[in-house]
Amino acid sequence: MERKKSCRILHLFIFVLFLSHLCFSCTRKNPSVEHVEIQQRFDSAYHFVVNNMLMSYSELDTFLALCDEMMAIPPSCLAPRQLPAWVHSFALSASIYMNSNELKKAIVCLQRGIEVADSLGNLECLTRASNLLALIYSNWKLEDEANILFNKVMACSEQSDVLSRANAYLAKSMHMVYTEKYDSASYYMSLIDRLQLKEEDMLSGSYRSVQYLTRLLKGWYLTETPDSLDRAIGILQGLYDEYHPVRESAVSFETVCFRLGRAYDLAGDEDKAARYYNESKDMIIAQPVTYQLFEVANPLMDTYLRKNDKAHVVEFMPVWKHICEQYYDYRMNGMLAYYSVKLDVAGKEKQIIQAEDLLVKRRMEVVILTLTVVLLLILVAGGIVYWRNKKRQIRMLFEALMRRYIEWREINLYLAANQNTPLFSIKPDAGDSGKEESEDSSSGEMKDDDFYRELYYRVLVVMEKERPFLNPDLNMPLLAKAVVTNRTYLSTAINRMTGSSFSTWLAEYRVNYVIRQMENGGFDSMDDLYEQAGFGSKTSFYRQFKQVTGLTPKQFIKRRMF
Fold first, then answer.
1. Number of neighbouring beta carbons within 10 Å of residue 96
2. What is the reported pLDDT for 18?
């Protein structure tokens, strides 16, 4: 009995919260045979906890064991009608943990219940669990956290049934009364009245509890509302007269007495105010000291101090002191539990983030390794294909480069061997028949190969020193004039020494010049380069460059870079 007296308005709301909505559906589906025993055990445990949680507090261990058993049951083993009750078991456990002063476990259970209800899309369970957690935050004076939850509850309640909305409005009204925002409390109480709840809408006995709590809250905020004292006195006096015969079992009846005394005090009736104040004091002194009496004991002590009632102050002081100590210890422990849970959640989130980062790194390593292997395979396959397709062009380029190297080497050797002889030995021109006979007569003194080799070396010297090939108008007569010979000898010398025609040989000179410029970077654009090299047009440049090297200029540049 002593334990029963210690439950306050918060416990009454818990009772209303769970009894007002837990009507099971009349149409039940037949569960599978393997889950029948689990479902029967669940029903038995749930009904026992709900029907006895406010009747006796001597078996908290039993209640907690049953709640833990219900929460541990997989939802897949339950019938569809039992899922809401399974979600409610988290909030039931939280309320019992609150009674046993295990605040951290209570918060964890409520937060878990909110998560489960949200995942299942059960708005009724979500609003009830959120209401309870918001009221706990309100009791701990964590108003910002309470308002955040209440806003979510209000948003969800608009989509819920009538009873869920009533619970949401009732919880919000209680929060507004606790924080002395009486206008807002009046607004939410008016919303409850508009719902027009009926007794048949609730379980047996829950309607009476809802009416009790609603009348108490109305009388409370009307007492503090101007021009509403008569209504407040009427509501509270009726509540007092109805429950005074059973005041020993009425929940928070000392609050009714104090609020009725407060109403008469504000109305100017000092005698009745003192009577109800003293009755509230006597009920508080007769009960075991608990922090839940603070909402009545603290304003009652303030009243005695304001009235300078020394006798009652002295009588009430020890009990009030113990109640305040327990209340502030409870608030401190509650806030410690709240921040401890937040710290645990932050630690878990950090671990999750670290695990996700590690997983991402591992995946990136696998992806990079896979891409590297694929790239290597592509390069190997591409190299094989490229080698097979471009082997002829590479060979032609190599031969052209080697030919130019041999030519330059022979020039150096020739110049080194003929340093003391004139560079140009003028050969008579073959312009007429007389001159041709003169040349034929001297051919006996010099072999044809030596003659054409010497002539070719002269041509190379002119080409290297004067660079006539840069002239786009260069032709065989102009070059023959430059080396002091005729076009017949010049053409024969080039053909014998290189095996190429004059046009091909000239194109090789110009292409080699372009290649040297590419290697030295001495050009701004490809258009400028082909004009510098003496090509008449861009088309002839591309055609002759590919004819000599086997590659286009862009392909050649990429080859060099590679």
1. 24
2. 47
Distances (CA, A) of 525 to 187, 323, 497: 81, 93, 34
Residues in the chain: 562
Return phi, psi of residue 347, to 5°.
-65, -40
Q: Which amino acid would we find at residue 36?
A: V
The C-alpha angle 105, 108, 112, rounded to 5 degrees, equals: 140
Name the token pair of 352. 């999750």
Radius of gyration of the chain (CA): 53
Region of residue 556 (phi > 0: left; psi between -120 and 50: alpha; otherwise: beta): alpha
Maximal C-alpha separation, the chain: 162
CB atoms within 10 A of CB 47: 13
Distances in whole angstroms, Cα of residue 519 to Cα of each of 393, 396, 516, 561: 19, 19, 5, 10
Compute the distance between CA of residue 252 and CA of residue 247 in angstroms, rounded to an integer.
Answer: 9
What would the pLDDT profile of 101-119 be if each residue is shown by its tens digit? 777 888 888 888 888 877 8
Yes or no: say if 24 and 206 are a contact pair by the CB < 8 Å rule: no
Under 8 Å CB-to-CB from 367, ≥6 apart: which residues? none
Q: Read off the pLDDT of each residue in 143-168 and give the average, rounded to a whole number.
A: 73
Which amino acid type is present at position 306? Answer: R
| Tokens found for residue 360 | 């991402």
Q: Structure tokens of 202? A: 């609730």
More confident residue, 247 or 358: 358
- Angle CA(465)–CA(471)–CA(474) in degrees, nearest 5? 100
Lowest-pLDDT range, 268-277, 321-330, 432-441, 462-471? 432-441
The amino acid present at 152, given as its one-letter code, is: K
> Could you please report the per-residue DSSP string of 518-544?
HHHT--S-HHHHHHHTT-S-HHHHHHH
Nearest to 393 by CA among 207, 268, 535, 551: 551
Integer Cα distance of 214 and 16 in angstroms: 11
CA dist., res. 175 & res. 526, Å (int)? 82
Task: State the pTM of this model.
Answer: 0.51
User: Residue 156 in contact with residue 122, Cβ under 8 Å?
Assistant: no
Is 164 in contact with 123 (CB distance < 8 Å)?
yes
Q: Which residues of 390-425 are buried (b: 16+ CB within 10 A; e: fewer)?
A: eeebeeebeebeeebeebeeebeebeeeeeeeeeee
Does residue 56 have a pLDDT over 90? no
In this structure, are residues 57 and 290 in contact, taking their beta carbons and an 8 Å threshold?
A: no
Contacts within 8 Å (CB) and 24+ apart, 31-39: 31/79, 35/77, 35/78, 35/79, 38/73, 38/77, 38/78, 39/77, 39/78, 39/79, 39/82
Token pair for 482: 């430059």
The DSSP output letter for 25 is P
Tell whether the model's pLDDT for residue 322 goes beyond 50.
yes
